[in-house]
Amino acid sequence: MQALVTGGGGFLGRYIVEQLVSRGDRVRSLGRGRYPELEAIGVEVVRGDVADARAVATACDGVECVFHVAALPGIGMDWRPYERVNLRGTQNVLHACRTCGVPRLVYTSSPSVVFNGRDQAGVDERTPYDFDWMERNGAHYSRSKALAEQAVLAASGGDLKTCALRPHLIWGPRDNHLIPRLIARARSGRLRRVGDGANLVDVLYVENAASAHLQAADALASPHSPVAGGAYFLSQGEPVNCWVWINQVLALAGLPPVQRQISRGAARAIGAVCETVYRGLRLKGEPPMTRFLAEQLARSHWFDISAAKRDFGYAPLVSMAEGTERLAAWLRATGDGGRGRADGK
Ligand SMILES: NC(=O)c1ccc[n+]([C@@H]2O[C@H](COP(=O)([O-])OP(=O)(O)OC[C@H]3O[C@@H](n4cnc5c(N)ncnc54)[C@H](OP(=O)(O)O)[C@@H]3O)[C@@H](O)[C@H]2O)c1
């Protein structure tokens, strides 16, 4: 098939692109940057911004399945960039799918669309969005992803079938966010355990996240697929203790376990101060702590993935042990992913 992957040059997007190419699909990628590594494997790289409706429509021409992966991640304090890229960008993708007659759309969502600041242990897709909590806690990324997800799911019907996948804490080689930042923070002595250290979280090896996207897309192609209009949590299927896992990642980089700790309440209070300062002084970049981040680091959040298994045959093909070996090899080969700097940038 002819596929379009928005954000095909990013961490997850590139794995989706590679899996599509290796099974013989024609792939176009849409992003703002140059990606010679994608061109080298035969991908048509289109440069453009998802917030530009015309660029998205051009990229969707002749496409049979869109994987809308591109997004602005993070914990920035300004709502407007999230609204522009994550919400308006997704609306542009939906509009282009309709006008270009694209029959299938797989949207990369996030479990944080239902995060509400409380422990979430084994919850499933019936968990509602809590827009009120997101607004009160300045969770702009989650809110923009949730509004976009709602639009994607509502658009499923007629000639267009859509679904939303919610992968949790994606990790693996070429990670440009989580792992390099953890390592950089630990190296600079600024990493503290938040909370009592007992919280369980889901994680997901990146190639499993990518293959789930292909499986969901294939399932959407069959008539009366239950996947159409559905949202699905994705994980390794075995939650890990958040801080034990972080310490394992640090050990791969030759770093000691996290030594210092801070209570959830104290981290939340620091987060509130950081947010006020960043907002008040219009500082660029992300605060070192936010109320949302404090809750995320201290709370359990892991999910029931039986719907993804049932509806499109999802299974984590790469185990935690195998994925960890691949991550370790990449860290060794790149010197901590080439991102061992203290600022995590
Ligand atoms: N990583 C995780 O743990 C995680 C967990 C849950 C959900 N997700 C979701 O997974 C998706 C991929 O995340 P990732 O970790 O792979 O992030 P990433 O490496 O930062 O990739 C994001 C991609 O989006 C593109 N992009 C960003 N802004 C754009 C814009 N305005 N127009 C066009 N393209 C744009 C970027 O390319 P250019 O910079 O070249 O434009 C990049 O290729 C996102 O939707 C994210 O919300 C990730």
Explain this structure to me?
- The protein is of the alpha/beta class.
- It has 13 helices and 15 strands.
- The strands form 5 sheets. It has a 7-stranded parallel β-sheet with strand order 3-2-1-4-5-7-12, sandwiched between helices.
- Helix 4 packs parallel to helix 6.
- The C terminus is likely disordered.
- The site of NADP nicotinamide-adenine-dinucleotide phosphate has 29 residues, from helix 1 and helix 4.
Coarse structural class: alpha/beta
Figure out the total of helices.
Answer: 13
* Major sheet: 7 strands, parallel
CA gyration radius, whole angstroms = 19 Å
Q: Hey, roughly how much beta strand do the residues contain?
A: 15-25%
Annotate the secondary structure layout.
Elements: E1 2-6, H1 11-22, E2 26-31, H2 36-39, E3 44-47, H3 53-60, E4 65-68, H4 79-100, E5 104-108, E6 120-123, H5 131-136, H6 140-154, E7 161-167, E8 170-171, H7 178-187, E9 193-194, E10 200-201, E11 204-205, H8 206-220, E12 230-234, E13 240-241, H9 242-252, E14 261-262, H10 264-280, H11 291-298, E15 301-303, H12 306-312, H13 320-334
Parallel strand pairs: 1-2, 1-4, 2-3, 4-5, 5-7, 6-15, 7-12, 8-11, 9-14
Antiparallel strand pairs: 10-13
Helix pairs in contact: 1-8, 3-4, 4-6, 10-11
The structure holds NADP nicotinamide-adenine-dinucleotide phosphate.
Residues 6-7, 9-13, 31-33, 49-51, 69-73, 85, 89, 108, 110, 145, 167, 169-170, 176-178 line the site of NADP nicotinamide-adenine-dinucleotide phosphate (NAP).
